[in-house]
Amino acid sequence: MSDESRPAPAEPRQDSRVAAVIPAAGRGVRLGPGAPKALRALNGTPMLIHAIRALAASRHVSLVVVVAPPDGAAEVKSLLDAHALPERTDFLVVPGGESRQESVRLGLDALPPAYDVVLVHDAARPLVPVDTVDTVVEAVRAGAPAVVPALPLADTVKEVEPAAVPGEPEPVLGTPVRARLRAVQTPQGFDRATLIRAHETVLDDVTDDASMVERLGERVVTVPGHEEAFKVTRPLDLVLAEAVLTRRRLNDGF
Ligand SMILES: Nc1ccn([C@@H]2O[C@H](COP(=O)(O)OP(=O)(O)OP(=O)(O)O)[C@@H](O)[C@H]2O)c(=O)n1
Ligand SMILES: C[C@](O)(CO)[C@H](O)COP(=O)(O)O
Question: Could you tell me the pTM of the whole model?
Fold first, then answer.
């Protein structure tokens, strides 16, 4: 490869300051009736507080921006005041929007200029281990513009023609090679300027932030995810999350 055609070396961001944006404005429709999902309790503590503690546990993260349900910013501020959180971390709370994408953008709008690496983490993934958070930060600091934690799939995946009526049989169009597929989690980590450009450029609906950066043609890489970083989506996930918390408490010996 000639010098001209060689890709530009990644810019390391070793001195960067890291902020986390936590979108927590979703209703949790798939979880069933009740309070907004992020405010529901797991073993007595709101899911959002678990998620905030998980991110603030990283020594890299010095600011957490919580994106609250649109009419719930005051309630979320009170929750933060009522729970023990690390003193070295700053917190901001802003109201969210109609979609996850809009909520993340509102969180980005609130970021002070000093932060040049941004993590976006679902409140609905309250149990992500700190090692996963640190791995993502380190990969962004090493120069990747976008980093996603990912796991291989256990199930085979089919592409289908979605049925007009739920429950009707769906024609199978193909079977992607499973070994090439990954289930992606959060926190997803970004060079701040790249993520902001992605949110300004990609206006149609997408399901994660990294895919917006892919649309820009920027490099997105995976790092190993963790099975405890699963997303609480349906009622059975609540059972699993509480079981994981109980196991952690027993392992910690209290
Ligand atoms: N308008 C929205 C929708 C979602 N989210 C957040 O995005 C994350 C991932 O979304 P998901 O798990 O789909 O949560 P909900 O949208 O609440 O779930 P559902 O689709 O079942 O209503 C959650 O932390 C959720 O609070 C958000 O901040 N703003
Ligand atoms: C961002 C995400 O958690 C990555 O897996 C996921 O895409 C969120 O999807 P949802 O539709 O908001 O549940």
Answer: 0.95
Pocket test for ligand 2, best of 22, 29, 47, 207 (most atoms within 8 A of CB): 207
- Peptide bond before residue 70 is cis, with ω within 30 degrees of 0: no
Q: Ligand 1 centre from 157 Cα, in Å? A: 23
SS3 178: helix
Domains and CATH numbers, the chain: 18-150+182-252 (3.90.550.10)
Which of 23, 184, 202 has the alpha carbon at shortest distance from 96? 23
Atom 11 of ligand 2 has which residue's CA nearest to it?
207
What ipTM goes with this model? 0.98
- Regarding the beta carbon of 38 and ligand 1, being less than 6 Å apart is answered yes
The pLDDT tens digits for 86-145 are: 999 999 999 999 999 999 999 999 999 999 999 999 999 999 999 999 999 999 999 999
Residue type, 120: V
**Closest Cα partner for 149 from 132, 137, 134?**
132
The token pair at 51 is 């998620």
